[in-house]
TrEMBL record:
Keyword annotations: Signal
GO molecular function: metalloendopeptidase activity
Residues covered by the M23ase beta-sheet core domain: 41-117, 129-162
Name of protein: M23ase beta-sheet core domain-containing protein
Coiled coil: none
InterPro entries referenced in this protein's UniProt entry, alphabetically: Cell_wall_metabolism_enzyme, Dup_hybrid_motif, Ig-like_fold, M23ase_b-sheet_dom
Protein's UniProt keywords contain Signal: yes
Keyword hit for Transit peptide: no
């Protein structure tokens, strides 16, 4: 017993560190550990510094400075403190270091005549005690405002959640939950009579717990994801929760926890978040399941995968969302696991004000409990929920009446629920006076790709009276696939395995009434398999995608669509069609190579490059290669976005320079040069080749802040009295240049 107690006491400091907070401006965060970013995960804490720079930054524990880094992007000015416990604290976006560290940095920069450094130091050079000032907060590197980015890394270089590994922060507010998503995972999966993923709003009760709006009818293998975030008192920011637990019928089903991450795992963030919901702008959902092909990272529990595959009947779902201090939010839901049933619809007649219908289950004898109805315009647009005037049981079915005025010139969709709680597939009534001609109506096809597989959607531009089906055709393949009518003018397949399309080059929509009509769609799509490389080419042969062996984790149907309606290119010249890489709602693990051919009349243009469309930033530059012999621009992308060739011929702007032209300045008061620059489209690559700064013809070792677009230089001694010249040259990514010389006097 004494031996075990001694061992526990010996190990406890290793397991639970006690670090001091690295700033003295309050324990307020703008971001926490594990948040989803465009580049992956946020690997530390972003600590607020009251919107200003220059605040002391402290050693959180005793140790030595093992590394100094300075650059224009990334962490800007950063220090690495290797602590006595063997872990490393990383401090980023600093404005300056202590004088002895600054001197060491300046010697290195002067020796190499470069701002960029990566200095590794010996344990004896710069030793600090816990609580010593080591630097001052700033806004350097890829920073969107003054703050301190802080990390704790273990001996393997992996980042740990500082709030569960030595730092403490008061917090009494539990996370918030807004929506839950049910995601079908195969062709036999259903959610409320539908095979597409569905989101449901959550409702908060008086005790602060959340609930799904009603019992949800599910069937087959499904995944859950949840839109949730953490809050802290005194802050409007939102944060990533620390831990989520899923219980089914009060038994722990799955867990995930944001405690340890690695720089090499950053691409896996798109498999931890619900990527489809994010791409559709529905917000940040966290997946509560792991597909077999998803990359394995120690966020999900290793022994379970979180997938729902429940026995028939009712089941309780409980989800606990926790922050680092275990403030917990509870979400409750009830699901009923049963296959959706088919119903039949028979018009019974009409009066001056009402329409009557008999709705019955097609095969099962479980009585229908309730019916809801929705109206749609003749062109298939959802209109409104229709009031059910009466609903009378008859055997297992019901006779329902609806107001005639709500159905005038409309189609009606009926959905039933039986007494067990199962929901029906929808059925539709269409007034034949207002249907289109199925032999001549235009028919569109859309394809989407989810975790369950490929959905093919056929949609006539007007409601028609015909039976729809689908044919997949290839040289050695001929497959007929039924379509479910999910709305009066929308017909959808079950999810289809991507491998089925491997030898398909044509899809036919079959509209069958008195005469069969075939609508053919060309099929320039390619099936990409993990571990192999494929090339997909657009229908016009001008755009291509090439995957690498690691680009995808599961079989994926890839194609390219020429986009007719796209975001405008306002600050450049669009020189190609805009191409949407598909499937845009599927994540990539590694980048894909892209190429767009250009015509010979563009061969001499040297300012054209590839760009992708970012929903937040607009058209964004892609580092581009130009094979003039083949007349193709090449690059790579991390997401399947819209891409195009755009020409940027507008030079960047030098907006302001301090000191100003012809200005007069006291020698002891002029201590900094500051140049504000901007560019309309391609932007600046954050490297020294993009800029030149000279004082009296002598090159200076300057800093650059890429988000503020500011070049700066700190004077380490007063300038001599007299006239001086500053020469500035800036170059954007497209190769456009601007230069300016100014003269000023020092007295």
């Amino acid at each position: 017993m004494r031996l075990l107690t001694a061992l526990a006491l010996t190990m406890s400091p290793i397991l639970t560190q006690d670090y001091t907070w690295p700033t003295d401006v309050g324990k307020h965060l703008s971001s926490n550990f594990g948040e989803f970013r465009a580049t992956g995960y946020h690997l530390g804490l972003d600590m607020k510094t009251k919107g200003t720079t220059g605040h002391p930054v402290y050693a959180v524990s005793s140790g030595y400075i093992s590394r100094i880094v300075t650059n224009y992007s990334g962490y800007g000015r950063a220090l690495y403190l290797t602590m006595d416990d063997g872990q490393t604290a990383v401090y980023a976006h600093l404005s300056k270091f202590t004088p002895q560290l600054e001197n060491r940095l300046k010697d290195k920069q002067d020796a190499g005549q470069t701002y960029m450094t990566n200095i590794f130091l010996s344990p004896q050079e710069f030793i600090f005690e816990k609580g010593d000032i080591i630097a001052y907060s700033g806004n350097t590197g890829f920073s969107f405002g003054p703050h301190l980015h802080f990390e704790i890394r273990n001996k393997n270089g992996q980042t740990l959640n500082p709030l569960t590994n030595g730092l403490s922060q008061a917090d009494r507010i539990a996370p918030i939950a807004e929506e839950i998503s049910f995601i079908p995972l195969n062709s036999e999966s259903w959610v409320n009579g539908n095979q597409l993923p569905q989101n449901f709003s959550l409702f908060r009760d008086k005790t602060g717990e959340y609930h799904t709006p009603d019992t949800i009818n599910i069937f087959g293998r499904l995944g859950l994801s949840i839109k949730t975030f953490d809050k802290r008192q005194g802050s409007n920011n939102t944060y990533q929760p620390h831990r989520i637990e899923v219980f089914i019928d009060e038994r722990l089903h799955h867990t995930l926890q944001f405690d340890r991450l690695d720089y090499n795992w950053r691409p896996t963030a798109n498999f931890i978040k619900d990527y489809r919901n994010a791409r559709l702008n529905f917000g940040n959902f966290i997946k509560l399941y792991r597909n077999e092909a998803d990359p394995r990272v120690p966020i999900h529990a290793d022994s379970t995968n979180g997938i729902l595959d429940l026995t028939p009947g009712y089941h309780d779902i409980k989800i606990l969302v926790m922050d680092a201090l275990k403030n917990t939010r509870v979400i409750h839901g009830t699901v009923f696991n049963m296959m959706p049933f088919d119903i039949t619809l028979e018009p019974l007649g009409e009066t001056e004000d009402l329409l009557s219908f008999l709705i019955q289950p097609r095969s099962i004898t479980i009585p229908i409990k309730s019916v809801i109805a929705y109206s749609f315009t003749p062109f298939g647009f959802a209109d409104e929920q229709i009031s059910i005037q009466s609903s009378e049981p008859i055997e297992a079915g019901r006779i329902v009446t609806v107001p005639k005025k709500q159905a005038n010139r409309k189609a009606i969709q009926f959905i039933a629920q039986n007494k067990l709680g199962a929901q029906s597939k929808p059925v539709h009534w269409i007034n034949n006076k207002y249907v289109g001609d199925y032999l001549s109506v235009n028919v569109d096809m859309d394809i989407s790709h989810t975790d369950a597989g490929i959905y093919v959607q056929i949609q006539p531009e007007q409601i028609v009276s015909a039976n729809f089906s689908l044919r997949l055709k290839g040289e050695y393949q001929y497959e007929t696939i039924p379509l479910n009518q999910i709305q009066p003018s929308v017909y959808l397949t079950k999810p289809i395995p991507p491998i089925w399309f491997e030898n398909v080059d044509q899809i036919e929509a079959i509209l069958n009434a008195s005469i069969e009509r075939q609508v053919r769609f060309e099929f320039p799509y390619t099936v990409a398999m993990p571990g192999s490389s494929i090339t997909a080419v657009s229908k016009d042969s001008f755009c291509s995608i090439r995957t690498t062996k690691s680009s995808i984790t599961s079989p994926t149907l890839m194609w390219i669509e020429a986009v007719h309606k796209h975001a405008p290119v306002q600050k450049g010249n669009l020189l190609s069609r805009v191409y949407q890489l598909q499937p845009f709602e599927r994540p990539l693990l590694k980048p894909v190579n892209i190429g767009i051919r250009y015509s010979s009349k563009l061969k001499d243009k040297d300012k054209m490059h590839l760009y992708y469309y970012d929903q937040k930033e607009g058209w964004s530059f892609i580092p581009t290669g130009n094979n003039k012999e083949r007349q193709v621009l090449t690059g790579e992308v991390n997401h399947l976005d819209a891409i195009a060739i755009i020409e940027d011929v507008i030079p960047p702007k030098i907006q302001s320079i301090h000191p100003g032209n012809n200005g007069n300045y006291p020698s002891l008061e002029l201590n900094q040069f500051k140049i504000k620059i901007d560019d309309n489209l391609s932007g600046f690559k954050p490297v020294e080749d993009s800029f030149e700064l000279r004082l009296d013809s002598q090159s200076l070792i300057y800093a650059y802040q890429p988000n503020l677009k500011v070049i700066s230089y700190e004077l380490d001694r007063p300038l001599p009295i007299g006239t001086h010249t500053i020469q500035v040259k800036v170059r954007d990514r497209a190769g456009n240049e601007t230069s300016q010389n100014i003269k000023f006097k020092v007295y």
